[in-house]
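2 proteins. here.
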Amino acid sequence: MDLREFVGVLMRNWLIVVGCTVAGLGLAVVSTLVATPKYTATTQLFVSVRVAPDSSTGEMVQGSTFARQAVVSYVQVATSPLVLDRVVSELGLETDAHVLAQQIKADSPANTVLINLSVTDPDPEFAAQVANTAATAFADVVSNELETSPTNPTSPVNMKVVSPALPPQSPSSPRLLVNLAIGFLLGIAIGVGLAILRATLDTGLRNLQQVEAAGKPLLGKIGNDPSAIENPVIARSDPTSPLNEAYRSLRTNLLYANPGGALKAVVVTGPTLAIGKSTVTCNLALSLASSGRSVLLVDADLRRPRVAKYMGLQGGGAGLSDLLVGRVQLRDVIQPWGNSTLSILPSGRIPPSPSELLDSPYMEQLMTIFKSRYDVVVVDSPPALSFTDSTVVAKVSDGALIVTAWGKTKRSQLEQTIAAIEAIDANVIGVVLNRVPLKEMRHTAYYYYSQGSGRQRSQLPTRHRAKAPVDGRSQ
């Protein structure tokens, strides 16, 4: 995952990141409010070595070095039962040395002969009392027990309290700012982690690399237009829409996607239902016709036909199914669309067995006739993973165009669709990524968003109006 993909993941999952951050801050505030304030009282001791008044400089240096080395060991003794048992006994505490040791911390600043003894307790007076008592007991244990012997009753080490503990005026914990900082950082870390985990587990198609990983080029990206539900044929309802420019880009890439020969018949299919396949088919056919080519749009989806409805034709009449069973003649079912070079062959009546009907020899003959009479034949067919209709029609065409939906179509579904079509030696021309969020489309050269009017406006600079690359990739 590069930086751009990482930023994209965070932008798509910003609610998760923000939610976790707010939760972390909230928990920090709650934990601060419910926590019992604790106070820390600290006393400081100085460790030295007794030397004779007439000692040489070397002896004094040796004494100082010994004291610094001994301090490391003395720090461990400060919280031992040898010291704390005296504190418990002297103060009459109803606890033992091991429990009391959890409230006491001893440390020594580096390269010094100082020892800091800190006691933390909800009662500031008690914390100071324990700290001072522990310091006195500590000094006595070191001076009179650890560093003496029967042959040398005078300890060479002198330990003295140089800064007695005083009752603290403000609590040492909880600290609101520290807790807020920790909660903020933990919240962000958890939020980012969840966003990355979600992106890792999400196998929906979202970019060029994911599509081309399946081995086929991405020929077009179509933005998600909410108005397409009511007006699916954008070339008719709003010819100046940036979506219409996206279909023109798809048209150009499609025509140059097969360097070995011209594409006369293209079957449009998809892995699953409800991905906008028929919408893409109708708009692609209109875009091809607007370039001056004679185009035939065939509705071969004999299960859920949509072409007649989207193109504004009267439904329920004769069509492809009636033609395949010999009920009508070809001239009786093909309808011209307005004053354009586009003609439409509706689906006709829904048959009981569409796959067998489309797999008949007559369908192959019809496709041959269509290709001889029209520059381009665009065929709308059912989802490839649900029915075999699209694969049998792709076999008698020049190739199949697979429509996928941004984030909805899984990579495995695309791979299975390609495998199903190629299993019968049919050609997969490329892939269309449909319903791409408009914010994702802003990275293309075909979209410009006017902040003043709130409408999306097409702005394609002259230098971008060149032909699509030969390999069929969208620009």
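next one coming up
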Amino acid sequence: MIPLIKQYRFNMPRSLLFGPGSADKLDEEIRQIGCDRVMLVIDKGIRHLPAIERIAQSLTEKGIDYVVYDGVDTEPTHVHLEEGTSLFRKNDRQMLVAVGGGSSIDAAKGIGILVTHGGDIADWEGRDRLTKRIPPLIAIPTTAGTGSEISRVSVINDLRRKLKFIINSTFLCPELAIEDPLLTVSMPPSVTASSGMDALTHAIEGYISKRPPNLGFGVESLTDVTAREAIRLIAGNLRKAWANGEDLEARSNMMLGQLLAAMTFSNSGTALVHGLARPLGAYFHVPHGLANAIMLPYGMEFTLQACPEKFKDVAMAFGEFVDDLPAERAACVAIDCVRRLCQDIQIPRLGEVVNREDLEQVIETMARDGYESGTPKVNPRLPTIEQMVDLYRKAL
């Protein structure tokens, strides 16, 4: 069968505002959208950071009527969304502004779903189930990693089922993403590490996934371009940002790198590593970025033989001189680059964050949940559930 010339859709927010200090323009952007009754959705852990207080003070001074929902902690759950929706309706809000990591942005998307569609959030699990846009959403990330501020995806932790599930719809893409590197300066090294590795995983998996942008022939897809540049920026700046959080150049490059990684995975999807990572969050509350960081080298090692040429490109994006190497040897260099980066920024092994005996009790269920999430099925090398179990054990 002859592959088709590439045809794909590229989704983005309606607008992007990038650069140091860009968050100071929030009030102007709210008024341009035509709203003045706002609900801020903020990670619980960052409520009192100076950057957040500055945003709140600016809205007060500019006469923007806002209420705050800050119930989200590590991950948005169905409980958080119900609480936030109740507050939104009770206070007759018009729009949402999410400030924080992926948890607050995904929570804002979930609240928007319940406001416009009703029902239980689990009713909307899956792809293209939504029928209309959520209320206008401005997303302002304070981490350089998740990419949720420009994606069409919300990941929700259903505590009732011990399952992290995905809602995927163009109606979830924010109205505006504000990318302000100054907001990431206060991130501690551990968050810088995990969020940066989250972005790297997005770029690598988006580059290799078997979704439409990566299928067929003709000119390379836009996601190929964004993926390689994202890897280059993250590989060259994550260590610096981790070692010195005040390095604004490194922070800005990381913000741009994660933005390009988000453009990549938002359109070409993720693959095996994300399928392995989500159950670690659902069963053991391992933060998503950290779970991706831990599993990335093992997912790459498993996948290597199915796409060595693309992994050779990854090595080149890391700055390695592999032009003359066979693709498979160069692919091994790419995996070594990722392992060294994890070591340098002190990413732990799985056994350091999860009790081995507890993991063994649920390991097959986790692998089955991860497989059924769908992303492993677009991995260049299709895993079995048994192979996913083995990857968890290798990561220990």
